[in-house]
Amino acid sequence: MARIAAVVMMMVVFSGCAFNEPNLDDYYEKQASEQADKQQLILKLRQHYEASENFYKAGDYVKAESECLAMLELKPEEEVVLYRLGTIMFKLGRYDESAAYFERAIRVNPKNGKAQYNLASIRLMQADNHFKYYAAMVDKDTDLSKVSDLMAAIDKFNRKQVISSDSESLDKLAGALRK
User: Fold this and answer.
1) Residue 64: which pLDDT band, with cuts at 50, 70 and 90?
2) What percent of the chain shows pLDDT beyond 70?
């Protein structure tokens, strides 16, 4: 009887092990399916990107935006798309949205110098507007010389004039902002 119980136990143990073995066919099929899905995603992203760039170059920013948004649905944190949406929003005059896309691109890649520069430019442009509102709202006896100097420096920066060592430098502009 003990022998029979031992044989039955061994059969149960070995049959259980057989069922727990990985099925290599299923594994390779899953790998192939995942690879096909990746290839399909890359193809869709490439199609949207090319369409977006063509619309952008043609000046049709609304259609370019639509293609970029379709890409973000497929891959939400794609740095190149976030950057392009920042430029599209800027061209459309939607500066807050532009800044938001540049900020997202920077979160993905803090070393994206173009996004950093564009975000800084937008923020300077917005600061200039706030300084203008401030100047219009303060008491007429308020000394606005520092604000005027700062606004002139921002205006010069925004117009992308050549900054020489003899004239206002970016360091001086930053220093004026800190004061």
Assistant:
1) very high
2) 76
Residue 120: how many other CB atoms lie within 10 Å? 14
Residue 154: closest CA among 168, 167, 138: 168
Contacts of 116 by beta carbon, 8 Å cutoff, 6+ apart: 102, 106
**How does DSSP assign the chain, residue by residue?**
-HHHHHHHHHHHHHHHHHHHS--HHHHHHHHHHHHHHHHHHHHHHHHHHHHHHHHHHTT-HHHHHHHHHHHHHHSTT-HHHHHHHHHHHHHTT-HHHHHHHHHHHHHH-TT-HHHHHHHHHHHHHHHHHHHHHHHHHS-TTS--HHHHHHHHHHHHHHTT----SSS--HHHHHHHHH-
CA nearest neighbour of 55 among 66, 44, 42: 66
The confidence band for 4, taking pLDDT boundaries of 50, 70 and 90, is: low
Q: pLDDT tens across 121-144, in order?
A: 899 888 888 888 888 888 888 888
Give me 124's structure tokens: 């300077």
Q: Which residue has the tokens 């219009």?
A: 136
